[in-house]
Design brief:
It is a single chain. Helices cover 47% and strands 10% of the residues. By secondary structure, it is of the alpha+beta class. It has one domain (72-313, 340-406): Cytochrome p450. A hairpin with a 2-residue loop joins strand 8 (307-309) and strand 9. The structure holds protoporphyrin IX containing FE. Protoporphyrin IX containing FE binds next to helix 11 and helix 15.
């Protein structure tokens, strides 16, 4: 990784997926924060795409996140590459909208995620985790994503949305494929895979929506179908992609944090021991996993006017990328930022850096992660890694492909 130490940063292209082969390129981010905290990448590997500005310090990420008037989520897409998902689809989800429409639709979704509603699910989530781990306990070895994380997070978000359990795997695969741009296994046909996924999501959601129109229930899908924003019902594409946003955010995020966190513990047995010996440390450890391994490596904004940021002139229309793995390891904020310290209990930007788009699912994600780590470590305190996994090769999804383990020492 020569660029980390010597080469000119002018030729650095953070859009090159090769740099992301082993996960976020932390040595490069370390250098960018020091030398060029707002840096231009030409996006040479995807010549049909415009280049982008990278924002890498915690302070600047915070500044951009707070200023939606200058750094819009609606003027362009929300990802570094436009071709990943058609921009119209991104703008049909409230994550790809600006106020006032964003705030109105988010308020609607928030009704399904109130602290009371989340707390009501604690028993159900623990039951789901226990059931999944009981099944796994019969095996000598397991793959923690496929066998543990996926079935748990898939059923939890499925129970919020009101989809049947037999569809959980299909939804999880759609989410993973839909978000996995740049990765040949997740999107073997590149854009074409993403477009197929979108068409399938639309068709499936419209079927469920039609059922809820006929027979209202108390799940989130029913809420979306029957609620009104400014006196009008949501349109079909807003329902479909609002639902799709929850499936994607609900599946890939928590799963990624759990699998990265377990991997880090398996590689640092003395840190794992601290949690096994004293499970009351788990909520703090979850914050450290979120800090070190933010599930989504970036979100994007688009400049609505010429503006100076970190000494660079950003032009109206330019893409501005917030790199959370970098802000979360900013030495201006954290001591020994690359070191796992399960007792650090840090603040971080894994859920975004404040502002309008702050993650809707934080309470749910924290609860799911706490339960998943508690139940896994209580049952399998001597778990060991059987081989070193590969990472998904992506500028967006920050997760291992597999976490293969032997369950007992
Ligand atoms: C470890 C778990 C999670 C992480 C790391 C995470 C991370 C994020 C991030 C970085 C954003 C964008 C922030 C921004 O652009 O400023 C976001 C937004 C969002 N997340 Fe999460 N998320 C997680 C779990 C969840 C869950 C479980 C759900 C839902 C069930 C969810 C639903 C959403 C939604 C709907 C948005 C869009 C909010 C908006 O635009 O106002 N997330 N999340």
């Amino acid at each position: 990784m020569g660029i980390a130490t010597q080469e000119s940063l002018d030729t650095l292209d953070l859009g090159d997926v090769e740099l992301w082969r082993d996960g976020p390129p932390h040595e490069i981010f370390d250098r960018l924060r020091r030398e060029a905290p707002v840096h231009w990448s030409p996006m040479a590997t995807w010549p049909e795409e415009a280049g982008f500005w990278s924002v890498t310090t915690a302070e600047l990420i915070h500044e951009v996140s707070r200023d939606w008037q200058t750094f819009s989520s609606e003027k362009g897409g929300i990802l570094a590459v436009d071709h990943a998902t058609p921009v119209e689809v991104q703008n049909a989800m409230f994550i790809g909208m600006d106020p006032p429409r964003h705030d109105r639709i988010k308020a609607l979704f928030q009704r399904g995620f109130t602290p009371k509603r989340i707390a009501e699910h604690e028993r159900d989530i623990r039951e789901i985790a226990t059931r999944v781990l009981d099944r796994v306990a019969a095996q000598g070895e397991a793959e923690l994503i496929k066998d543990v994380a996926q079935p748990v997070v898939g059923r939890v978000i499925g129970s919020f949305l009101g989809t049947p359990e037999e569809d959980d795997v299909a939804w999880a695969e759609l989410a993973n494929q839909g978000l996995g741009f740049g990765d040949d296994e997740l999107q073997p046909e590149g854009n074409a895979t993403a477009h197929k996924v979108i068409a399938e999501v639309f068709e499936r959601v419209m079927k469920i929506a039609a059922e809820r129109r006929e027979h209202p229930t108390d799940d989130l899908t029913s809420l979306l179908v029957h609620s009104e924003v400014d006196g009008e019902k949501l349109e079909d594409h807003e329902i479909a992609f609002g639902f799709g946003l929850l499936v994607a955010a609900g599946n890939d995020s928590t799963k990624a944090t759990y699998s990265n966190g377990m991997l880090a513990l398996l590689r640092n047995p003395e840190e794992m021991r601290k949690l096994v010996d004293d499970p009351s440390k788990i909520p703090a450890a979850v914050e450290e996993f979120l800090r070190m391994f933010p599930a989504f490596a970036h979100f994007r904004r688009t400049a609505t006017r010429d503006v100076e940021l970190g000494g660079q002139l950003i032009r109206e229309g330019d893409k501005v990328i917030l790199w959370y793995p970098s802000g979360n390891r900013d030495e201006a904020v954290y001591q020994c930022p690359h070191q796992l310290d399960v007792e650090r209990n840090p603040e971080h930007q894994a859920f975004g850096a404040g502002g309008r788009h702050f993650c809707l699912g934080t309470a749910l994600a924290r609860l799911e992660l706490k339960i998943l780590f508690e139940e896994t470590l209580a049952r399998f305190p001597d778990m060991t890694l059987t081989s070193q996994p590969e990472m998904v090769r992506s500028l967006f999804l920050n997760q291992p492909r597999t976490v293969p383990v032997r369950l007992r020492g």
